[in-house]
Known about the structure:
The chain has about 80 residues and is of the alpha+beta class. The chain is built from three helices and two strands; from the N terminus they run H-E-E-H-H. It has a two-stranded antiparallel sheet with strand order 1-2.
Amino acid sequence: MVTKTRARVNQNGRIVIPAAFRKALGMDEGEEVLLTIEDGGLRITTLKRRIQHAQQFVRKHLKPGESLADELIADRRKAGRNE
């Protein structure tokens, strides 16, 4: 798999992400991406991948069978009863 390539920035500030890179990253047409400046370079990440990364991070800190969604729903119901 190719992991480096060269591209040119056009007059409108656009670059084209090569098809092989889009395919390797599972990027679809119209997909939203996040741009980050890191260590003097530009990092392009799909929003879908950033969400997956955040979910994996949170899962590492949960106990087996623990559900943050269930806890949130229970908290909202409790708050509703106290209103």
